[in-house]
Amino acid sequence: MCSVYIEEVTQALTHKNIINKYIRFPDTPAARQAVSQRFYRKYGIPGVVGCIDGSHFKIVVPPKEEEHLYYSRKHYHSLNVQMVCDDEYRILNVNSKFGGANHDSFIWENSDLNTYMQSLHRNGEIVWLLGDSGYPQRPWLMIPFLDAESNNYNEKHMRARVVIENTFSRLKNRWRCLHLFVVLVTAKLLLAPVVQWVLVKQQLWFCCHLLLK
C-alpha cells in the first residue's frame, strides 16, 4: 500500500505544471538582474545568474543494452544530473536526462539552458553562469583561469560557485534516498525531492504534506 502512495506523490510532484512553476530559470531581464545583483553584493562578480555543476546519483543496473550509457567513471551506474542554483540555494534548472557515462561538458552542450543562454548573449544581455573546469569557457559560461595558481578572479569564482556544491550536499542530506549508497529506480524519484527542496526554500512545504494526506 505504501508503494501506491509513493507513486501517487511522485507523480504529483513531478507533473510538468508543478516542475515548470517551481523549478524555473529567471525568464525576464528584471528577474536575471535581481539574481546578478545579489551575486555581485555577496561575491563581487557582476552578471552572474546562477552556478552550474553535475552530480552522480546511483541507480539500479539498467538493461544490458543501455548499461554502457550509465556506467560512470566512479565505477557504478548513475544518472549525471546537471543543476543550476542561485545564491540562495534555489534550484533554477535540472537536467536528469543523461547517464553517468556522459561528461558534464557533453550534458551542457546538449542542454536547452545552453541554447537559452546563447540566445541571451546574441540579444546583447551580458549575463553568465559559473562552472568548474569541467565546462568549456564561453561568453555565457565562466570557468576558473586554469593557468593561474591564485588570483582575485579565481578566488571570487570559487567562493561564489560553492553554492551549487552546497545545494547538492543539502539536497542529498535532507532526502537520504538520494544518498550515494542508496539506489534510485527512475529519474522521477530524483525529481520529486528536488521539487520538494524548492518548495522548502520558498516556504511552501505544507503543500507536500497536503499531498500526503
Automatic annotation (TrEMBL):
Keywords: Hydrolase, Membrane, Metal-binding, Nuclease, Nucleus, Transmembrane, Transmembrane helix. It holds the Pfam family DDE_Tnp_4. Its main location: nucleus. The keyword Glycosyltransferase does not apply. Residues 52-179 form the DDE Tnp4 domain. Its cofactor is a divalent metal cation. It comes from the Eukaryota. Belongs to the HARBI1 family. The keyword Metal-binding applies. GO terms for cellular component: nucleus. It is found in: Nucleus. InterPro entries: HARBI1-like, HARBI1_dom. This is DDE Tnp4 domain-containing protein. The chain crosses the membrane at residues 178-199. One of its GO terms (molecular function) is metal ion binding.
